[in-house]
Specification:
alpha+beta; 11 strands
Length: 201
C-alpha cells in the first residue's frame, strides 16, 4: 500500500525532529514510518493525521490528493492561557506542554515548567486538540468591564466540562456579571476565577 507519511509531513512543513517532539517518540521511529519499515499504532495514526492536517485515509494511501483540514496554528494570547487548564498547547521554543492555570505555568513531559510570562508564542491547533472553545482573542481589561452591557465569560482553571457549562453570555451588572440562570462571576475575582471577552469564543 502506498503510505504517505513522509509526503504528508513534508507538505505540512514539519521536520522529523518536530514530529518526534510533538508525538513524544524517537526520530528513528518517525523515520521508520516515513520509510515504510513500521506502521504507527492506530491512536498515533490519528494524531499524525491531526498534526499534518490530512485524513487517516490519505496517510494510508486510500484517498486522492491531500485536502488540508485547516489545522493552522493559531496564537493564544498569554492573558487567555488561564482558560486552557489541563489542555495541551505548543510553545514555540519548548514544544508541547500542558497548561497549569493554577500555578500559571506550562508543564513539559521532562518535568520542566515555564511560567506564563516567560513563554514565547503559544499556539493551539483546533480541532486537532478537540478544543472548540479555545479563546483566540485578548480578554477585556478589568477597567473595561463596566463599559459593556454583556460579555462572553468563561471560568479560569477548571475542567473543560465545567468550563463549557458555565461559559456563555452574561449581562454586566454593577459588581458582577450574571447569565440567564442567575449564575454570577464577581468583579472582585476577575482574572483569577474568570475572564470576559467581547465575542463568542
Amino acid at each position: 500500500m502506498p503510505y504517505r507519511f513522509k509526503e504528508a509531513m513534508l507538505q505540512a512543513g514539519y521536520s522529523v525532529a518536530q514530529v518526534a517532539n510533538a508525538l513524544q517518540v524517537s526520530e528513528i521511529t518517525v523515520r521508520s514510518w516515513n520509510n515504510h519499515h513500521k506502521k504507527p499504532p492506530v491512536d498515533t495514526l490519528c494524531r499524525l493525521a491531526d498534526l499534518y492536517g490530512v485524513t487517516t485515509d490519505y496517510l494510508l494511501g486510500r484517498s486522492g490528493p491531500a485536502q488540508p483540514l485547516n489545522r493552522e496554528a493559531l496564537p493564544v494570547p498569554m492573558e487567555t492561557l488561564r482558560l486552557l487548564h489541563g489542555c495541551p498547547v505548543w510553545e514555540e521554543k519548548n514544544g508541547w506542554g500542558l497548561v497549569d492555570a493554577i500555578h500559571q505555568q506550562l508543564m513539559f513531559v521532562d518535568g520542566r515548567t515555564l511560567p506564563f510570562p516567560d513563554t514565547a508564542q503559544v499556539s493551539a491547533l483546533p480541532p486537532a486538540l478537540a478544543m472548540g472553545y479555545c479563546p483566540l482573542e485578548k480578554p477585556i481589561p478589568y477597567s473595561g468591564l463596566g463599559s459593556h452591557e454583556r460579555v462572553w465569560a468563561s471560568p479560569v482553571g477548571v475542567c473543560p466540562e465545567i468550563q463549557r457549562e458555565l461559559q456563555g453570555w452574561y449581562q454586566v451588572r454593577s459588581r458582577y456579571v450574571e447569565n440567564e440562570f442567575r449564575q454570577r462571576f464577581y468583579f472582585d475575582n476577575y482574572g483569577s476565577k474568570w475572564l470576559a471577552f467581547e465575542g463568542e469564543l
